[in-house]
Amino acid sequence: MAAARRLKRVAISQPGFLTLNPKVTPTDLVSSRRKRVNKNKKKNWNKYSDVQDVEEFLEDVRHQERTTGGLLCEKSDDSLFFLDVGQPKKVEEKEAAEPVKGKKRKGKSSRPLRIDLILQHDSLVAPPKDVLAYQKPNAKKLRRTAERAEKLAANGVVPRSKKRLLNRTVVDRMSKKTETEANNNPERDFYDIWGQETKDLGEPWYLQQTRKKLVKRPEKLNEKPSVLPAVEVIAPGGSYNPDFFSHQELLREAHEVELKKKKVEDKLERQLAYNKADTATEETILREQVEGLVEESEEEEEKDAPKEDGEEVAVGAIAVADKKTERQRKREKAEKMKEQQRLTERRQTEQQQQLFQLRSIKTSIKQQEETTQIRQKRRKAKEEAQKAQPRRLGKLKFQPQDMEVQLSDELAGSLRQLKPEGSVLMDRFKSLQKRNLIEPRERAKFKRRLKVKYVEKRAFKEIS
Amino acid sequence: MGGLQKKKFERGSATNYITRNRARKKLQLSLPDFRRLCILKGIYPHEPKHKKKVNKGSTAPRTFYLLKDIRFLLHEPIVGKFREYKIFVRKLKKAYGKTEWSAVERLRENKPTYKLDHIIKERYPTFIDALRDIDDALCMCFLFSTFARTGKCHVQTIQLCRRLTVEWMNYVIASRSLRKVFLSIKGIYYQAEVMGQLITWVVPYQFSHDHPVDVDYRVMATFTELYTTLLGFVSFRLYSSLNLVYPPKLDSNGESEPKEESEDDYAMNSESYLEKLSALSASLARVVSSADEEEAQLDQFPSEGEDMEKMEAREKELKQQEAQKKLFEGLKFYLNREVPRESLAFVIRCFGGQVSWDKSVCIGSTYDVTDETITHQIIDRPSVGKQYINRYYIQPQWLYDCVNAKILLPVEDYFLGVTLPPHLSPFVEEKEGDYVPPEKLKMMALQRGEKPGNEQEEDEEEEEEEGEQEEEQEEDDNGDEEDDEEEVAEEKNLKKMEEQRSQGKSLHVKVTPGKLKVENKARLEQEEKAEEKRLAIMMMKKKEKYLYDKIMFGKKRKVREANKLAAKRKAHDDSEKAKKKKARK
């Protein structure tokens, strides 16, 4: 570096050196004046050695190298100057152009554009190299593995990763479709669900915890909540063409049900009824209005009298009892003891006496047992009867369905004229409720959140 | 002394139960979802014995579940599906609100669904368990299959129900297992015996729906969801037990081939198969085509005494059943258009008859009205235009009555325009001493093989017959009474003798030529038995005697009532007859 600099300096000091910047003369660059400074300190070197000229010179050199492709002083004169001979003759050019038309055109196209020439890279400084563009990390290793892979492929050995891909189970698109099949799809397929036994893979506890095996259903859940049959066949009177007596029987039953309903209704009405004698007449109204005006004074006097009595009584009740004396207390204690002794004695004698009452005691015990047995039986029978009864499962009680019955004149003569009575849907629903499978419920009432306002439309208004 | 104070409602029944709302919260489900889950899993509310204890001192009516049941529900994978569905709905709503149609489509494609197969397997561990619970499933499916497609429930559900019911009916036909039919005002009740289980179901009349408002359709749809799955699996098993192809296919080489023409008039190709199946007129294809199945003979085991009797009875029953199965075999029916086609075709085919109808009524008719080999034409109108001489024109009730009576009843009572005899319920089983309507008695007599003379003649004979029958009935009824009467008679005789002895002592003494006493062995035996019974009664303790008397009194009262009813009926019939006669004159 230093050597090169020295060389450049030498070049400049020579008389033929030309600077690119015409203002700066080469003599300026080399200053003659010197200043005395201690040169044994590095600090002073930096401070007092004037390197400005050198820097400028070097900058100039670099500039020349960059832009003109070398030092101007080293270039030949031909490359720097040309002889100006004025405008070339146009006619001549034209004449020369015409005979070799194709050639000229070719030459024109082959000549580079000026802009391209300007932009052409002509500096001597080579552009910096991108090392990473040529170097690959791990190039050797990669090359070696590639070579090995080629060799293996030639031998017909499949690499592991590829093998894994090949061995992968094919995901069935159809299986996904079957999974998303709706439950009520009319074309759905059935299979023998009871025939195939599921194989137990692994430990049951593990399977249960990982939800691969379902929890066992408790046996108790398979019991039916009611003893009633699923389908209760209608009474023989419900035939479309019933026997006379069974029809009458059914009618009687329906009648009884209606009677019961009527009775309940009547009872309610009776309870709600008011006494007609209690209605307000003119007289009673008048009396009410005048009340307290006419006989006021007498009543007041009467009222005052008992009040005073009451106060006296109250005062008497509050009066505190006297304190007991020591003697009294002792006597009470003795009495208590005596009483207790008497009772124990009595009990003892009674027990002794019971020895002679063994027979009667035996009979009484027997009686007791009998009664308990009877009660047990009764209770059991009641429970049995209760089993067929619908339970109270919610807010509402089970309401049996209205009996389906056709009156004698409604009965159809033939199957064609039959008008079905009642609804099977309702029957099924009530049956579910009756068998305690679902709780009786009321239909949720629709609640309007915002008030409705009725407005007559104008067109309508005009007419009405 | 001491210890911690016991807190209330922290042990005992209060901890065994859980209210519905708490259960719902525990499962993190909405109420409809919770209800659905409970129905699917077969977990029902429970009424506690001591409500106040369970309800923590309050007496407010609440729905309770057993805590253990709810804990069991927690393991159910469907719960997760329900939650997924909830999220799906939420997303869908959002996509709709933002009018993102592509998102809507994508969500729709990935709609979460669930299967009930594992629940079926869990609730019904064996096939017989499932078969015992099939009544409900059948009723529900038959009901839903008659619904109009008006949006009360999914159309797909209706179609599935229809398919399953058709499959069921075809199975019943193929196995010939129908036993009883009852036409009620509500619907038609059927009873079949499948693998030893009596299965009853009710089918509503067609086009009779007025949808009641106070029925929770959501609950019903949930039940149907479960039951369709159940019925599907059951029918698969049933079909395979008969070596039939499942899903059912029509037998291609059956003798009664439905006519192939004009199929396109009825339905599209995709639908016509189900339609043809539901016509019930053709037999089904078998996996192994077995032309003649060997009748399995009941193995005979040497047995003694009572077992023998039982065996004989059973054998007799079996024979009767076999006969019933072939009730309509060899008969050819033609259904007029005004009769309920499906029910009649089902019944006829169940007992081996051939059936056809007008080809404009339904697909699958096998022969025309003009066919000369038709034996019975079912008709339900006052008159017909052209009548063929070699066939009976009868009303539909005849078929049902025949099925219930297990014999071919005389056709005369069911002719065109004749007032029909009452249609009796086959589901009533009369106990001893109950009132039995005369029509049933007649039927029973016919079953026993007694020929009730010429019935086509006039009323008088009928009356006589009825009289006979009534006597018969009285005999039947009074079976037990007889003994008592005998006793009474004997006692009377004895009393007379004694009286005579005490009165006069001058008895007529006379020697008469001895009569040979014909000893009737049977009679003697009976007498001996009666004597034994009498002695047994005499030896009874006071208490037992009291009970015995009570029972006997009850029986007598029953008989008395039955007699009264019979007399009433007779009076009623007489008056009717008198009216008729008057009218005729």
UniProtKB/TrEMBL annotation, chain A:
Gene that specifies this protein: NOP53
Organism: Astatotilapia calliptera
Biological function: May play a role in ribosome biogenesis.
Matching PANTHER family: GLIOMA SUPPRESSOR CANDIDATE REGION GENE 2, RIBOSOME BIOGENESIS PROTEIN NOP53
Leader sequence residues: none
Localization in the cell: Nucleus, Nucleolus; Nucleus, Nucleoplasm
Domain of life: Eukaryota
Higher taxonomy: Eukaryota, Metazoa, Chordata, Craniata, Vertebrata
Bias kind Low complexity: ranges: 350-359
Assigned GO CC terms: nucleolus; nucleoplasm
Location of region: Disordered: 92-112, 289-394
Biased composition range(s): Polar residues: 360-374
Pfam families attached to this UniProt entry: Nop53 (PF07767)
Basic residues bias (residue ranges): 102-111
Similarity comment: Belongs to the NOP53 family.
InterPro entries hit by this protein: Nop53/GLTSCR2
Residue ranges of the TM segments: none
Name of the protein in question: Ribosome biogenesis protein NOP53
GO BP annotations, alphabetical order: ribosomal large subunit assembly; rRNA processing
GO molecular function, one term: 5S rRNA binding
Biased composition (Acidic residues): 293-303
Entry keyword annotation includes 4Fe-4S: no
Composition-biased stretches (Basic and acidic residues): 92-101, 332-349
Keywords annotated in UniProt: Nucleus, Ribosome biogenesis
